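User: My instructor asked us to take a sequence, write out its structure as tokens, and then describe one feature of it. I'm not sure where to start. Here is the sequence I was given:
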Amino acid sequence: MTTCNNTSVGILVARDDPLRLLLIERRNFPYGFAPPAGHVDPGEDYPDAARRELREEVGLDVTDLWMVLRTWRDNRCRRPGGDHHEWQVYGATAPGTPTRSLDETESLLWADRDTLDTLAAATRLYLAGGISEEDWLRSPGLEPVWLHMLGELGWVAPAEAVS
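Assistant: Let's start with the prediction itself. The structure tokens for your sequence are:
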């Protein structure tokens, strides 16, 4: 397995009327709902990685890309050495209908604010030990790292020192 390079990108694709954010339910660890995201590959810059990940995970091509967050997070991944990541999160315009990667995603979801709040509440409960691992895998909330980042961006209430 490839060693983690500790660099990751996330891509926020939103649609209006009503405002909704594109999420995937991850098929592999780390489990949960999250915007399309992934590692920056060797020889690739962050914006190129964002374009590639969006295409790989939901079949959409970026027509416009802008930085919305740069942060460092303690978060595990399945690659060895992946205990933290330097994140760059982008907003993106990506017209068309998303189609999920059968290898990487369980489902796609256009989440409105109420749905995001429900997923965030489930994640907070899980991180506090109120949801078993088995129940989390059956019905996950937001991927924990995204609870923090979406909180910083104002999509959900801030995570309040939950790791």
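For the description part of your assignment, you could build on this observation: The longest helix spans residues 113-127. Try explaining in your own words what that tells you about the chain.
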